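Q: Please design a sequence for this.
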């Protein structure tokens, strides 16, 4: 029993010590994970598992949307992307359509990769 509790403690510690940028990356990782789980659940005709995991992805997208800072014009572009993905997730959930989920998954992977590149650029010393 010590292992699950130890992992939980590690995970909580990792979250508590993460920067906002790292937390965003973790959210992308979670959305990708839950989307993959939903796809497999649809393939296995496990409707409830698919539904629950699609809802988890929707909640992560809602979190992204709630943290947009509209003082930057690019925020509206992200809002449009997140709204589109959320609409597609709702449709995928209603239809239990794995192709729609695969489309959303591709967008999530692209956005995660871009976010990781931004984080890496931010770590590099300024060239003045």
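A: Design:
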């Amino acid at each position: 029993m010590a292992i699950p509790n130890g992992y939980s403690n590690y995970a909580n510690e990792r979250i508590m010590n993460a920067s906002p940028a790292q937390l965003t990356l973790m959210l992308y990782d979670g959305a990708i994970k839950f989307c993959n789980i939903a796809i497999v659940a649809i393939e296995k005709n496990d409707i409830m598992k698919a539904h629950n995991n699609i809802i988890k992805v929707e909640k992560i997208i809602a979190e992204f949307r709630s943290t947009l800072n509209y003082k930057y014009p690019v925020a509206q572009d992200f809002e449009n992307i997140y709204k589109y993905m959320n609409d597609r997730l709702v449709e995928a959930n209603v239809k239990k359509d794995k192709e729609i989920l695969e489309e959303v998954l591709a967008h999530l992977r692209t956005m995660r990769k871009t976010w990781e590149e931004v984080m890496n650029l931010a770590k590099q010393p300024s060239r003045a």
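Q: Thanks. Anything notable?
A: The helical segments are 2-16, 20-43, 47-66, 74-95, 98-123. DSSP finds five helices and no strands in the chain.
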